[in-house]
Amino acid sequence: MLHLRVVCPAERTEDVLRVLRAAPGATHLVLLRGAALDPVGDVVEAEIAREATDEVLSELCRLGVDHSGGITLETIDTALSDAADRAEEAAPGEGADAVVWEELIARTGEESRLSVTFQAFLTIACLLAAVGAVTNSAITVVGAMVVGPEFGPLAAVAVGLVGRRWDLVRRAAFALVAGFLLATGVTAAATVLAEGVGLFGPGVLDQGAQQVDFVFQVGPFSLIVAMLAGAAGMLAMTSAKSAALVGVFISVTTVPAAGFAAVAAVLGRWDLCGRSLAQLVVNMVGIVLAAWLVLVLRRSGSSVGGRGSRGGRATARREDNGRPLAKG
């Protein structure tokens, strides 16, 4: 279940209570009159079954509470309550199958930003991939896959395309392009330095790389694996099963391809560099395409964000101000 906290003006409190009382998956309703100081108003709290959350958020946002007050969501790990059990049974569908669109938009919106942390992880991942390339170590390449943070912006592109949130698409695309350019640039510089101090010779890639040739071997299975990974990743994000994302990271060769391309370019192996970049593009397109398809199928006729065009613009303003609506 999810814990919902609503801060609203006193004149909207009864409307909020009416929405929550009518929701089949809501329980543990609490009202704290005058408890909110900024903005001034009342605080209403409740526990809501995940499968009923999206409709409740839509109703609350139609009341304008997201503008005049605030709405916060938090995940509840354990709820020992007969009332909570009844609420989950009354809510339609299964919690594992429910998509909370506001939660998804807030999560992908946060992960789509070009932050110092994102760039650091991406650069380290590319450097690991470069080491794997020159040492012919598949294990090191797999380590680079796990470290790579690129699935967040790729998922944000898919969410933005489905919800027509072009601000999210632009921000995520910028994070990917700028992030990979900087990471591969640092990797190329590190390769030049390593070659200069004699860590490896200029013909290191000519000696065979049987263990890591999957990085630059582009073929039909590259797209198939990327699409399967993208579908699994988006299912994991929309069903709150984040542990499955690790499997996505070690399935596709986005970061390893970028790292291998940097090494190959420095060593003058432009054929391998071109094939690695092609692998990178194929994997990224496949992930976004599959993630988009999963979201389209899971939307089931409901609008992304559950708030229509007005709510979408409001969410965009909040994200641009660094204050996403919901945290899952």
TrEMBL record:
Keywords in alphabetical order, please.
Membrane, Transmembrane, Transmembrane helix
Specify where the region named Disordered lies, as residue ranges: 301-328
InterPro entries, A to Z: DUF389
Q: Where are the transmembrane segments?
A: 114-135, 141-162, 174-194, 214-236, 243-265, 277-297
> Which Pfam families does the record match to this protein?
DUF389
Q: Does the keyword RNA-binding apply?
A: no
This protein's name: Uncharacterized hydrophobic domain-containing protein
Q: Which organism is it from?
A: Streptoalloteichus hindustanus
